[in-house]
Design goal:
heterodimer; A: 236 residues; 2 domains; 2 strands; B: 276 residues; alpha/beta; Rossmann fold; six-stranded mixed beta sheet; 40% helix; 21% strand; globular
């Protein structure tokens, strides 16, 4: 919701305020601001740099010259547009990172299932997230085994690329075999039974949380209308 | 009672059947050991007995599999899940992969069957207690050792409370202590009326928990009889199965021409060590 609001608010001040209120304050309260900052920077730094460089030097409507760097010219309009875009990117990446750092996938999926999402869809969503570390672990095990048998996975780029090929096959085939075995186990545990499952627990959902969600949901059409009517000019 | 009547099964795309005309009856409270050389058909028999073949595996099956007198052919897999439970040798692939804790993992099966929440909790705690893994309840299943994962997988099976259990080498990755724990849990389940088919390479374990043993070779049932008789008999080695350690020790002692008095003392020790 924060990401939608950041896009709708536009300008520099809107997304910046949104980031402060909906991302920074909760992160500070949750004592994860440092982790959030590091992760969000890692996520956005490459795109942020390219947005800044491209807009600063190549903004088509740029007239007001700030400085010249060889054949390219930095303009004030380009800088302004870049900063507005960066504010939105910051709000979006901050909100996504905050969500990632504060919401275990299993809790999210349980909550979705409680709200009526099919158990199979919920399972696929969660299994996809959980599969990544399992795949990484499998790849590490196979790499270690292959290295013990003389495979060279270090050195020049070309040598490392050559080393990847003998690893890809076992990782892929092992994963496919595992999927088959897991399917059997899931079938044997009644996973294909139609209808709703019994949930062992679900994340608490307080009245304040529900209220906050509704406020955010209502804010989206309100901002849309306000923007269309030109009431958000002061945010620029 | 779990019954197989003249069952022949061929995997999809396989040129010939992997099981030929196998019949067996598994009564309530009975633990039937299933042994045979590698690729003799033990896993296939487990898959057929549990209903996974041909439902999930595909392939063609002739003959009948009956659960408590009811033909399982028209039943869906989830309808069989609460009646026949199956555990496999590889622990990691038996876990759901989505449970954050062992407690949730064990509860996964009954959750799928939609049992009421209070009963779900009771079943989960009972299964954890049966395998003495209550201390693992809050751990992440993915971070457990292979042996611990196998115990969790078996606990997940127990939580389904099936009347019939099919276990395909359930102790393959367990240490002696874990094996003993599983053996004790199986004996307890059998005492409670469950019928158990357990495919195992560990004939020592089978000697301790089985009342009867079925030997299969190239997909055919070749020996069926009391566990003590089959496992101590001379035919096992020819069928590619290692007899229990005590029997091998006795044979080695005879081959080494040990004095009669020593053999007698050895027999006494073996008889003392053998399960009654």
């Amino acid at each position: 919701m924060t990401t939608a609001l950041a896009v709708l608010a536009g300008g520099l001040l809107g997304p910046a305020l949104l980031t402060a209120v909906a991302v920074v304050v909760p992160a500070v309260i949750g004592r994860i601001f440092g982790r959030l900052l590091r992760t969000a920077l890692l996520l956005t730094l490459p795109i942020a740099v390219s947005v800044l460089v491209v807009n600063l030097f190549f903004f088509p409507a740029g007239r007001d010259v700030l400085f010249q760097l060889g054949p390219v010219t930095a303009t004030a309009e380009g800088l302004e547009f870049a900063l507005e875009t960066l504010a939105r990117i910051g709000a979006i990446s901050g909100a996504i990172t905050l969500f990632y750092l504060t919401t275990p996938p299993s809790e999210l999926v349980l909550d979705l299932e409680r709200r009526g999402v099919s158990p199979r869809i919920a399972f696929v969503a969660l299994a996809s997230v959980q599969t990544v570390p399992a795949l990484v672990e499998r790849a590490a095990t196979i790499t270690a085994a292959q290295r013990a048998r003389g495979l060279d996975t270090e050195g020049s780029l070309w040598r490392r690329l050559r080393g990847v090929l003998p690893l890809a096959g076992p990782v892929l085939l092992g994963s496919i075999t595992e999927v088959e075995a897991r399917t059997l186990a899931l079938e044997a545990r009644g996973f294909t039974r139609p209808g709703r499952r019994t949930l062992l627990w679900w994340p608490p959902d307080s009245a304040r949380q529900r209220l906050a969600r509704w406020v955010l949901v209502l804010a989206v059409p309100l901002l849309l209308v306000a923007r269309a009517l030109g009431w958000l000019g002061w945010l620029n | 009672m779990l019954t197989l009547e003249s069952v022949t099964y061929r995997y999809a795309g396989a040129p010939r059947p992997s099981l030929h005309d196998v019949s067996l009856e598994l009564h309530s409270g009975e633990v039937l050991g299933l042994i045979g050389a590698s690729e003799a058909g033990k896993t296939t028999l487990c898959l057929v007995a549990s209903g996974l073949a041909p439902r999930t595996m595909g392939g063609t099956l002739t003959g009948r599999v009956l659960v408590d007198g009811e033909d399982t052919a028209p039943l869906a897999m989830h309808e069989l899940a609460g009646r026949i439970g199956i555990a496999f040798a590889s622990p990691a692939t038996q876990l759901s992969g989505v449970a954050a804790t062992v407690y949730e993992e064990v509860a996964f099966g009954p959750m799928n069957l939609g049992v009421p929440r209070s009963e779900l909790i009771a079943r989960t705690e009972e299964a954890l207690t049966a395998l003495r893994i209550e201390s693992l309840a809050d751990r992440d299943p993915a971070l457990l050792s292979g042996g611990q994962q196998q115990l969790v997988a078996i606990a997940g099976l127990l939580a389904l409370r099936p009347a019939h259990l099919v276990l395909d080498e359930p102790t393959a990755q367990l240490d002696p202590a874990g094996t003993a724990m599983v053996a004790a849990a199986l004996a307890g389940l059998a005492a409670g009326g469950a019928s158990i088919l357990v495919a195992e390479q560990k004939t020592d374990l089978l000697l301790g928990i089985c009342s009867r043993v079925l030997v299969i070779d190239s997909g055919r049932a070749v020996l069926d009889g009391p566990a003590a008789e089959i496992l101590t008999g001379p035919q096992l080695a020819d069928l590619g199965v290692a007899p229990p350690a005590a029997i091998r020790l006795r044979r080695a002692a005879v081959n080494a021409s040990l004095p009669a008095a020593t053999l007698a003392r050895l027999d006494e020790a073996i008889a003392h060590a053998m399960p009654q």
